[in-house]
Inverse folding.
């Protein structure tokens, strides 16, 4: 039995090709994954991401708890609605999950975590919270729609009355609310747009209003190639319980500046940092024809590594990948594809941002 | 519903084969297979003249989603490959039974293949 989001019947009505996505029945595409990818780069597309998990943390000790729970520091969020990307680590510095934390009130933070890790995360968060006077509310009553693309904002304004008024001064990585709609200027595509968190009962109506305004439905297939072009990490691919953020090119999300903040995993990270890590994530562009796939072996001038996410870039028209490679490798490398070596160039991600090729 | 044509034969591994009547056969992948794979971005083909043994993987079709092997239905010799797929792999999606063919080959013994009804059963059982 697979979980279904409240928009499931909409996906089927729109011809979505439904697949098992970490236990959820989700649309892979509605026809062509590549067309949907281009729509988000050039116009506006929307994704049902209601399978993602919203966790509300409330109570006087909320800030103190989240500063203990995650590797980035929510203390630097100084205006309500501001968001922060972070990893949640175990004691060994491995990544339990990556998440977005929103500062909503002094006694109210909202966490958005991955779908596939929901149960593990909830158990972990609940266990860690024992010494803190807070409440944890898993918001299973909420849906989430990501509207992404250069025209995403204007089409959202057109689709949902009142949003322009409330969002016109909304900066990237900030959120605001209108009634029961929570609107964040965030995303996972490398384009501008909103992620809208809303009650399940309003989701179908809102989805249809967005369709009316010619926001095209896009499947999770396109979401993956878009995030890969944007150089964004995927939990389970670029990071997992056994790798630290320092080995995943996510050192920028770790805040060690407040020496008194003893967050989970800090000691391990400091050890890694003083010893120096030997691998991190780089980007690859295939020179030859073919497609790079996950887990393929990469041979660089500094030693061997492994592809963490490989696919085809519809925007560039070539295969691209993220790979965990020896630090300071550069230039050309070889990738082992079906017993052959294909040549690729090592680059610094992102590959594409805001519709433009950067590599 | 995927398209299955009754003018040709099929394999359990979702290839189709048609007799060209001049001693050669043409092979491609079925509508069901292209639908499962989604948008094609690369097709790796053998070279003309290659001798291939039965059931070996002799082409690879790659979609955004996955790479999938194409298998030889019998011992065969490749006589022509579809060169237009180098620049337009998407022909395998838009025209899998016509313009999106993969190879032409000669074979002394094509062996037992499936007719369209039998192939329909294979698809239905998946």
């Amino acid at each position: 039995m697979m979980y279904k989001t409240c928009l499931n019947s909409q996906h089927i009505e729109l011809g979505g090709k439904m697949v098992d996505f970490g236990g959820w029945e989700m649309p892979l595409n509605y026809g062509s994954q590549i067309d949907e990818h281009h729509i988000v780069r050039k116009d506006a597309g929307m994704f049902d991401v209601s399978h993602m998990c919203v966790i509300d943390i409330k109570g006087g000790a909320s800030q103190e708890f989240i500063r203990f729970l995650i590797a980035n520091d929510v203390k630097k969020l100084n205006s309500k609605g501001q968001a922060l990307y972070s990893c949640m680590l175990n004691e060994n510095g491995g990544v339990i999950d990556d998440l977005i934390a929103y500062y909503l009130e002094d006694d109210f933070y909202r966490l958005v975590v991955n779908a596939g890790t929901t149960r593990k995360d909830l158990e972990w968060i609940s266990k860690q919270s024992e010494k803190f006077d807070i409440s944890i509310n898993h918001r299973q009553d909420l849906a989430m729609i990501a509207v992404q693309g250069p025209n995403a904002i204007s089409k959202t304004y057109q689709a949902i009355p009142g949003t322009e008024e409330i969002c016109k001064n909304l900066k990237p990585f900030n959120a605001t609310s209108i009634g029961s709609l929570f609107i964040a200027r965030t995303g996972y595509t490398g384009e501008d747009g909103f992620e809208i968190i809303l009650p399940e009962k309003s989701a179908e109506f809102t989805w249809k209003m967005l369709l009316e305004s010619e926001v095209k439905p896009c499947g999770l297939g396109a979401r993956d190639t878009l995030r890969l072009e944007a150089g964004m990490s995927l939990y389970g691919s670029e990071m997992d319980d056994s790798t630290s953020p320092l080995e995943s090119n996510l050192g920028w999300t770790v805040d060690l500046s407040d020496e008194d903040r003893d967050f989970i995993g800090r000691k391990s990270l400091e050890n890694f940092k003083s010893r120096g890590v030997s691998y991190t994530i780089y980007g690859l562009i295939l020179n030859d024809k073919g497609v790079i796939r996950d887990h393929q072996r990469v041979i660089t001038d500094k030693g061997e590594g492994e592809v963490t996410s490989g696919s085809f870039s519809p925007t560039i028209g070539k295969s691209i990948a993220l790979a965990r490679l020896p630090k300071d490798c550069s230039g050309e490398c070889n990738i082992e594809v079906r017993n052959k070596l294909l040549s690729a160039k090592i680059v610094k991600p992102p590959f594409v941002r805001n519709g433009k090729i950067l590599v | 519903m995927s398209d299955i044509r009754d003018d040709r034969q099929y394999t359990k591994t979702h290839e189709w084969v048609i007799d060209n009547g001049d001693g050669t056969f043409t092979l491609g992948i079925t509508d069901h297979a292209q639908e499962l794979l989604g948008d094609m971005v690369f097709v790796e083909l053998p070279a003309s003249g290659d001798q291939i043994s039965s059931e070996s993987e002799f082409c690879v079709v790659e979609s955004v989603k996955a790479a999938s092997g194409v298998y030889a239905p019998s011992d065969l010799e490749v006589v022509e490959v579809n060169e237009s797929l180098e620049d337009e792999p998407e022909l395998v999606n838009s025209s899998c039974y016509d313009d999106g063919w993969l190879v032409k080959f000669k074979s002394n013994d094509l062996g037992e293949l499936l007719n369209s009804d039998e192939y329909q059963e294979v698809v239905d059982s998946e």
